[in-house]
Amino acid sequence: DGGITQSPKYLFRKEGQNVTLSCEQNLNHDAMYWYRQDPGQGLRLIYYSQIVNDFQKGDIAEGYSVSREKKESFPLTVTSAQKNPTAFYLCASSGGIIYEQYFGPGTRLTVT
Amino acid sequence: SQQGEEDPQALSIQEGENATMNCSYKTSINNLQWYRQNSGRGLVHLILIRSNEREKHSGRLRVTLDTSKKSSSLLITASRAADTASYFCATGAYSGGGADGLTFGKGTHLIIQP
């Protein structure tokens, strides 16, 4: 059963703590992405990776970090430097040339 | 900044009617895509139209692209209750090294009344 998985679905953290969101895909896609969605808003690009061991900042990378050690995995760390971390986080992957992206179910992060 | 802007922000129609949503963007694009999002869920890709295409169909979906006006429209014919969702347009670029991230609009929230 191919697709993208994100875990956990809901995550609660105290302010000042770093938290890592998981994203795994078995679609054999080279490119992976992280987006943030706030209520009533569209998606904003945080980071993306076109190939293993390489990644680029998106529009709102400050306060976030990523790694891409394996083709299947692209974890996102929300650091304590992110001023407004509470949001819905979506991971996606793409085969590259075709451009359409496949999205995971999302992780809703609440920081209090 | 977000490039795409959908219009209207919200749309409520009766089941069986057609729904039309519009999207405008600011810079040159390689392709434009439409996605659907059910409440609290991930996005589902609907259709992609390349910059050299003017119209594309997929089932009950019809997408048009006017690059001179930097605009696109999504038409859903014979709407069903299951079409209730938010619809986003997204523009894509290709940097030569691979597929860059998409730039999304804020979406149109479509409600289909039974």
What this model shows, in words?
- The complex is a heterodimer of chains A (112) and B (114).
- By secondary structure, chain A is an all-beta fold.
- Helices cover 0% and strands 51% of the residues of chain A.
- In chain A, strands 2, 4, 5, 6, 9, 10 and 11 form a seven-stranded mixed beta sheet that branches.
- The model of chain A has no long low-confidence stretch (mean pLDDT 93).
- Chain B has 114 residues and is mainly beta.
- Helices cover 0% and strands 54% of the residues of chain B.
- Chain B contains no helices and eleven strands.
- Chain B has strands at residues 5-7, 10-14, 19-24, 31-37, 43-50, 55-58, 61-66, 71-76, 85-92, 103-104, 108-113.
- In chain B, the strands form two sheets. In chain B, strands 2, 4, 5, 9, 10 and 11 form a six-stranded mixed beta sheet that branches.
- Chain A binds chain B through residues 4, 30-31, 33, 35, 40-45, 48, 50-51, 58-59, 88, 90, 92, 94, 96-106, 108, and chain B through 1-2, 4, 30-31, 33, 35, 40-45, 48, 88, 90, 92, 94, 97-107.
